[in-house]
Amino acid sequence: MKPALPPPSFALQPAPLETLVIPSGLDGSRGLNRGVTGRAQIAATTDLDAIRAWLSRFTNTKTTFENYRKEAERLLLWSVVIVGKPLSSLTHEDCLRYQQFLADPQPAATWVAGGGRKHARSDARWRPFYGPLSPASQRQAIVILNALFSWLVQAGYLAGNPLSLSRRRAKHAAPRITRYLEPGVWQEVKDFIAAMPRDTDRATAHAVRVRWLFTLLYLGGMRIAEVGANTMGQFFVRRDADGKTRWWLTVHGKGGKERLVPATQELMSELSRYRQHLGLSALPSPIEDTPLVLPIGVTAASGGTQTCAPLTRAALHAIVKEVFAGAAARLRERDEVSAGRADLLEKASAHWLRHSAGSHMADRQVDLRMVRDTLGHASLTTTSLYLHIDDDRRHQETEEKHRIDW
């Protein structure tokens, strides 16, 4: 007869994985769902070590690592604190109970950070949750945990995946993108930017920078992280088959993938406008490591552009959210009919501009394959003559049909 597991009433509290200490009866070394002895392909002997082995595969991708750690951490803590079982003893029925827990983590004082605030993992106020998970977040959590269990089975650590018995939903067509700004709302944002105050040098610098940032996000379809991670030296010029000079921007994007973004005449004009305001030459040099967007106060005269640190992702997000909030406030002041559009703008984030760029290009009948390549939804190959011709046509269509029109 196997020894009884400790009851869930022992004094173990949720803690981050890196500081978590689990009693031997709950550490998974004798989990009921452990794989066959001697067949494991990882050295882990406890559930915590097994999770760390799985997470080690994602350490080079910060966002993925943090998301995966969060979901594995939550399940492990729930398993040992609430259920009183090792993760490697969880059954299918336990997983169903966990899905219900995600919708309302209780007791809230134990599981939910006060006020929904995010605290550092070393902070005593840290909690695994910031509030109940939405249905979409619940589904995402289960997808990640299913990947964890499947990998542990493949590695020989677990005998089976308790989530694999879940009812498989029929595949539906992907929903239409809804997080974007329809042209009328987008025009309101541009009007707000055009009317930003310029009564001081700092206000002028801020308005010029905002216009350039929104140009990059919209005309380039760039992610906010890409704006911070790439430089002006990645703009380059080449001649097409007809001898026409075209500018491009090499973007190092998500997952380490590289893509070419057409730098249209309009985009290059805005770049020159921004650079000249900073006291830089109108066009960048290939060796230039100037960030795409600079902190206010850094100019050529200050001698800081070549070594200046780029704005953080959070700082760029804050600028975008501030503009959306300002445009929404202007809409509310206008009339009650505009309140719905203001509500939409207040929910918007920088990524909505990327979705807006793709949607507007598609609406203007830019070839969808070219939209795909510009947004980086597929890897690019630029070596063959055929793809070079295709690139040139993509540049031409983007030039003609995808404009910001300040």
Automatic annotation (TrEMBL):
A Gene Ontology biological process annotation?
A: DNA integration
Q: Which GO terms describe its molecular function?
A: DNA binding
Asked if the keyword Cytoplasm belongs to this entry, the reply reads yes
**Ranges of residues in domain Core-binding (CB):** 45-153
Q: What UniProt keywords are attached to this protein's entry?
A: Cell cycle, Cell division, Chromosome partition, Cytoplasm, DNA integration, DNA recombination, DNA-binding
SUPFAM superfamilies under this entry? DNA breaking-rejoining enzymes
Q: Which GO terms describe its cellular component?
A: cytoplasm
**PROSITE patterns, per this entry?**
CB, TYR_RECOMBINASE
Tell me if Lipid metabolism is a UniProt keyword of this record: no
Annotated InterPro entries: CB, DNA_brk_join_enz, Integrase-like_cat_sf, Integrase_catalytic, Integrase_recombinase_N, Tyrosine_recombinase_XerCD
- According to the entry, every stretch annotated as the Tyr recombinase domain falls at 176-399
Please give the start and end residues of each transmembrane region: none
Subcellular localization(s) per the UniProt record: Cytoplasm
Give the matching PANTHER family.
PHAGE INTEGRASE-RELATED, TYROSINE RECOMBINASE XERC
Instruction: Provide the protein name.
Output: Integrase family protein
Which source organism? Caballeronia temeraria
